[in-house]
Design the sequence.
């Protein structure tokens, strides 16, 4: 009987790997990724078949064998070690959840995993861009009629005002402007209709402007 595994256990597994220095593989691996992919294709196939049956040991072996390859794909896209580690973890969680969907006509198993890693890296990159643009848009939206933010403690003033607004409005603003969610993604995450999310953000921005004007 294969052991059961939960997202929390997966997270703990990858966190322990980080502490053990597994990500050094991405920097020190001297093998060409294409050669590595070819050399281990058969092993990857067997491991994916075992993972499809929820074999945690197989996932551990797959991680030790291929995390270097996937990290060598992810890191150049994100150019940030911590963000790359998060994308790598997301990639292996997806591999765990979708191993049963892999079929040989989709290409080599290593190519399939590389595609997952690329998608996770670009998803995270786009979210980082949206977060950066969102924070800039938030500042511009709430400071047009306020001199408070232009002062040295402007950022602190904005944070204080965020804590004062309606919690539902704050949650919507946090997801869209601070975490890079689209409004549709925020709607799904918060379990509220898209129109409601838009209204919460609009009313929250009005309250932030008023708060900053009174600061």
Sequence:
């Amino acid at each position: 009987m294969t052991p059961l595994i939960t997202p929390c256990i997966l997270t703990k597994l990858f966190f322990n790997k980080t502490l053990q220095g597994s990500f050094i593989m991405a920097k020190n691996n001297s093998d060409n990724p294409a050669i590595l992919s070819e050399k281990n294709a058969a092993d990857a196939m067997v491991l994916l078949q075992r993972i499809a049956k929820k074999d945690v040991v197989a996932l551990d072996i797959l991680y030790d064998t291929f995390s270097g390859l996937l990290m060598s794909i992810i890191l150049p896209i994100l150019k940030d070690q911590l963000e790359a580690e998060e994308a790598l973890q997301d990639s292996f969680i997806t591999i765990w959840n979708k191993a049963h969907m892999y079929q040989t006509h989709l290409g080599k198993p290593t190519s399939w995993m590389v595609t997952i890693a690329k998608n996770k890296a670009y998803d995270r990159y786009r979210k980082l861009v949206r977060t950066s643009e969102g924070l800039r848009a938030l500042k511009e939206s709430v400071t047009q009629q306020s001199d408070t933010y232009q002062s040295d403690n402007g950022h602190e003033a904005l944070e204080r005002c965020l804590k004062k607004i309606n919690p539902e409005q704050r949650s919507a603003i946090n997801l869209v402007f601070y975490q890079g969610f689209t409004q549709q993604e925020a709607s799904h995450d918060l379990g509220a209709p898209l129109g409601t999310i838009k209204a919460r953000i609009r009313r929250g921005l009005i309250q932030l402007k008023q708060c900053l004007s009174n600061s």
